[in-house]
Amino acid sequence: MSKLLKGTVLKMVALSAISIATLSACGKKEEAAPAPAAVPAAEAPAAADPLKIGFVYVSPIGDGGWTYQHDLGRKAVQDKFGDKVETTFVESVAEGPDAERVMRDLAAQGNKLLFATSFGYQEFVQKAAADLPEVNFQHATGYKQAPNSATYDTKTFEGAYLAGIVAGGMTKTKTIGVVASVPIPEVVRNINSFVLGAQSVDPDIKAKVVWVNEWFSPPKEAEAATSLINGGVDVLYQNTNSPAVMKTAEERGVYAFGKDGDMSAFGPKAHLGSAVIDWSPYYIKVTEDALNGKVENGQNFWWGVKEGAIDLVKISEEVPQEIKDKVAQVRQGLKDGTFQIWKGPIKDNKGNELLADGQVADLPFITSIKFYVDGVEGNVPGTGN
User: Fold this and answer.
1) DSSP secondary structure of 20-87
2) Do 259 and 286 lie in a common domain?
3) Residue 64 phi, psi (nearest 5)
4) Best exposed site among 72, 94, 116, 205 by fewest CB in 10 Å?
5) What is the pLDDT of residue 17?
6) Quick one: pLDDT at residue 158?
C-alpha cells in the first residue's frame, strides 16, 4: 500500500473513530439526562386558625361561686374542642365603662365570640356589638339582643326553690334569711322562690333579707349573714358570689346553702346543699354553632333543671329522707314539665293577690318580679313593694 493510500486510510479510520465516539457520547448524554423534575404535590391546606373566644368576669375566678362556675364552662369548651379554639378571660371587671374597654380590647385581639357574664354589662355589650358586627356577643342574665348578640341565663330560681324545700325541713326558728346582692328581677325572683320552697313544707315560715348591693364583697356578705343570724335566722341562702355566708354560718353554728358553685368545703357542718350552675352545656352549644358558622343571635336562651343547667347537689345527710324525697319529686316535675314553681295562689307581702289559685305565671311576669311574696319582711329596695 502506498504511503499516500495508507495515510488516507488512517485518516478515515481516525475520523470514523471520532464520529463513533461523538455519537456514543451524544447517546450517553441523552440517556443520563435527568428526568423532568416531578411537579411537587400540592401542599395540604394549612389548619384553620382556632376560633378565639373571650370571657369577661365580674369577680375573681376564685370566688367559689358565680365566676368559678363560668370558668369551669370555659375549660369545658377548651377540653371539648381542643386546638379548634383558643379561650381567654379577664376577671374582676367592674360593671361600668371599663367593661366596654375590655370587650373592645378582646375583639382587637381577634376574639370573634365574647361571653359577658354579668347583668351590669348590658349597655356596654350593646354599644360594642353595634360597632363590631363581625363579633358575636353573648350576655349572661340580660334582656337586650341585637343582630350579633344573644342573651342567656340559668333558671337559678329553680335551684333556689329546691334549696327552700330543704330549708323548710331544717329550720327550727321558722325564720330563714337571704344575703342578697343587687335588687334586679333575677335576684328578687330567687329570694321569693327560696321562700316559696320553704313554705311548701311549712306555710308559717318567715324570711328576712339583707342587701349588700354588690355581687362580690366577702366582708359585706359576712356582715349581712351575721346580722340575719342575730335576728333569729337559722338557715341562710345567698345571691352573692363568695363563700363568706357559708363560712359565717359554720362559725355561728347555723345552716346555709352554697350558691352557683359547690361550697361544701367552706362549711362542712353548716352546708345543707349547693344550688350549682353548670354553664358548660350552653357554652359548648354556642361554640359548636360558631365553628359551624351559625350562631343564633337576637334571642334569649334560658336553661334550667330540664337542660342540666342547674341542680341542688350534695344534700346533707342530716336532711330527713322525706324532705329529700320531696326535692327529688319536684326536680322530676321540673324536668318533665309537670311542676310549676310560680303557680297560684300566690300573694305579695302586702296581701295582694298576684296569681289566682291554679294560675301559672307567664314569662313576662316571671322576668319582671319586683316584689316580695307573703312572708318576706320589708320592701324591695327602690320599689316600695
Assistant:
1) HHHHHHHHHHHHHSPPPPPPPPPPPPPPPPPEEEEEE-SS-GGGSSHHHHHHHHHHHHHHHHGGGEEE
2) no
3) 80, 5
4) 94
5) 38
6) 98
pLDDT at 31: 40
β-partners of residue 90 are 56
Same domain, residue pair 137 and 60: yes
C-alpha cell read off for 164:
327552700
Alpha-carbon separation of residue 2 from 5, 122, 135, 366 (angstroms): 5, 119, 103, 131
Is 351 domain-assigned?
Answer: yes
pLDDT of the residue at 19: 39
**Nearest-angstrom CA–CA distance, 72 and 61:** 9
Residue 96 belongs to some domain of the structure: yes
Dist CA 48 CA 45 (whole Å): 8
150 and 80 in one domain? yes
Cell of 292: 359551624
112 is written with which cell numbers? 370573634
Grid-cell match 297560684, residue found: 344
Q: Which residues of the chain have pLDDT under 70?
A: 1-47
Q: Which residue has the cell 322525706?
A: 322
The three cell numbers locating residue 188: 328578687
Domain of 358 in residue numbering reads as 156-269+307-366
Calpha distance 63→74 (Å, rounded): 16
Q: What's the pTM?
A: 0.85
Domain count of the chain? 2
> What pLDDT, on a 0 to 100 scale, did the predictor assign at position 383?
87
pLDDT in tens, 55-77: 999 999 999 899 999 999 999 99
**CA gap 258, 264 in Å, rounded:** 7
DSSP lists the bridge partners of residue 115 as 55, 138
pLDDT the model gives residue 137? 98
179 and 120 within one domain: no
Query: How many other β-carbons are positioned within 10 Å of the β-carbon of residue 221?
Result: 27
CA distance 112 to 272: 41
Helices (H), the chain: 3-32, 66-81, 97-108, 122-131, 156-170, 185-199, 218-230, 244-252, 280-291, 321-336, 363-366
| Burial class, 39, CB count within 10 angstroms (exposed 0-12 / middle 13-18 / buried 19+) | exposed
Per-residue pLDDT tens digits for 297-327: 988 999 999 999 999 999 999 999 999 999 9
